[in-house]
Amino acid sequence: MYAGLKRTESGGYECFFEYQKPTIMSCVEFVATLGSIIILIITMPFSLFWCFKVVQEYERAVIFRLGRLRTGGARGPGIFFVLPCMDSYCKVDLRTISFDVPPQEALTKDSVTVTVDAVVYYRIQDPLNAVVKVTNYSNSTRLLAMTTLRNILGTRNLAEILSDREAISHAMQTSLDIATDPWGVKVERVEIKDVSLPQQLQRAMAAEAEASREARAKVIAAEGEMKASRALKDASDVLTESPAALQLRYLQTLTNISAEKNSTIVFPLPIDLISHWISSNPRDGNNSRF
């Protein structure tokens, strides 16, 4: 009986059991096994150095005897026994492995050429499938990641690639995980590292951004001038309504002028002397020029 996990249509996993018929050992296999045991007994205790193997906590060993997979699944962690000249084994690392996807040049949905690179994190979930069902799971996963990245970029616009990298990473991770599940590989994470654009497109986008910033600056300056004009108008209305405020402003201006280091001599003139000329009507013809 063999137990394992398989992916369901909803994306989860379920446990299954398979009953395998016991394999009948042929005469050649029986003789080879018996001979290996006899040699092992004769060469003891030196043969024990080649018979006992150790795998670490993060490793599993898949053992083959005369080309057939031994029952019981992958061995480890700990120590296990192999027959010399009969058994061969392959160690599988269960730790998370990361690799860089080389920069891929692709044509986006809006016909823009971009170059994108990424990083992929994966681990071995089923050591038996990783050894039996694929020749080199690491190289196969790398090639599949490059192809998947180009395919996903072809379905997105340039604006989506630049602004929504997380969605692209999630779509790539889901696609890779489904494709590598028969190999016993679990893709845990995919991250987009960099997006490179052609030089002409970069200059065009920079010019567009600069023009947009200049337009916003002009709008802000115009709004500031409008607010300043309204403030000056309100101040002039206050000074017109209050002669005392006008006199205080006059004295403040004289103080500011006299505080500067210059050769100008300021003679303050009382505001009462010129109030008559300020309040006179221009139509009376009594105005005087200073």
UniProtKB/TrEMBL annotation:
<protein>
    <recommendedName>
        <fullName>Band 7 domain-containing protein</fullName>
    </recommendedName>
</protein>
<dbReference type="InterPro" id="IPR043202">
    <property type="entry name" value="Band-7_stomatin-like"/>
</dbReference>
<dbReference type="InterPro" id="IPR018080">
    <property type="entry name" value="Band_7/stomatin-like_CS"/>
</dbReference>
<dbReference type="InterPro" id="IPR036013">
    <property type="entry name" value="Band_7/SPFH_dom_sf"/>
</dbReference>
<feature type="transmembrane region" description="Helical">
    <location>
        <begin position="30"/>
        <end position="52"/>
    </location>
</feature>
<dbReference type="InterPro" id="IPR001972">
    <property type="entry name" value="Stomatin_HflK_fam"/>
</dbReference>
<keyword id="KW-0812">Transmembrane</keyword>
<keyword id="KW-0472">Membrane</keyword>
<dbReference type="InterPro" id="IPR001107">
    <property type="entry name" value="Band_7"/>
</dbReference>
<keyword id="KW-1133">Transmembrane helix</keyword>
<comment type="similarity">
    <text>Belongs to the band 7/mec-2 family.</text>
</comment>
<dbReference type="Pfam" id="PF01145">
    <property type="entry name" value="Band_7"/>
</dbReference>
<dbReference type="GO" id="GO:0005886">
    <property type="term" value="C:plasma membrane"/>
</dbReference>
<feature type="domain" description="Band 7">
    <location>
        <begin position="50"/>
        <end position="209"/>
    </location>
</feature>
